[in-house]
From TrEMBL:
Protein name, UniProt field: Transcriptional regulator
Any GO molecular function: DNA-binding transcription factor activity
Ranges where the HTH lysR-type domain occurs: 1-59
GTP-binding keyword on record: no
PROSITE patterns given in the database record: HTH_LYSR (PS50931)
Amino acid sequence: MKLQQLRYLKSVRDNNLNISAASKMLFTTQPGISKQIALLENELGVRIFERRGKNLHGITPVGEKIFTELDKMLALEEKIKAISREYLDPSIGSLNIYTTHTIARYLLPKTVSYFINKYPKISFHLHPTLPPQTKGKISKGYSDFSIVAHDVSHDNDLIILPAYLWTLSLVVPKGHPLDNGEKPTLEQLCQYPILSYEMGATGRATQEEAFSAQDLNPNYFMTVMDADVIKRYVELGFGIGIISSLAAQDVEHTGLTCISLDHVFEPSKAWICFSKDILLQNYMYDFISSFSPHLTKQVMEKVLSQTTRSKIEEMFTDFKLPVY
């Protein structure tokens, strides 16, 4: 068994079992990857992938168990490399941020500008949150951080920390009946077709909880995850939009009006997540505290000393989070 074979396996899985895409990512050949996978399966005596003809169709049950250990081995390899790099030159490294379009557009620019100016030798990469085929999992690489505005399911391999609170706002065309200088009620919102987030999204769940508490049945005319799409269709007159206040803050010079809804909807939490196996380096602490000032290096070191998620949650009971 070779580490290179494990890297091939991981790349194939991460590329939705597409060997051609994996070979391009690794700058190698498709036959070369197929050969190494076959050699490893023969060595182990088990099938890691299910096949239909020459194509990979799925991962076998034993393959799933192998991938669990494989991820740990590759993470450990990267951690060892990171230790060496930090010792040789603390100013060199990499940082991968996985996040949503809204966070990347409206919240991150200030932190990114600060970071790349202070750490010009650090390789910085900004990625969209992981695609649907990964079942919503958070990336767990040695230099990967995820910043998400939705609840994250419990994962023993993750550290999940509150980053900030976010609120909802209403966007309507200028001159709309609700654009009257007064705060709209939930009953008034129900009188119009609503464009908002899809079922299961945190912002949508917050709305449903508030409407349900008053036995109201809103008319969701359109649901979509992209706030810019919602704003565009509101401009076209299809209804009223309920979106993140962050995404609504740039409508001032458009044909829309933004109205805060923090009087009817509770704020939601956003999270910063990373693997427990990450070796946090000084530039990583700096990035985190720049984005979320309450997550200082001292606080983070205390977090890392905790043994359970419940103890970490207790730490933040009285913390005042930024609100956007």
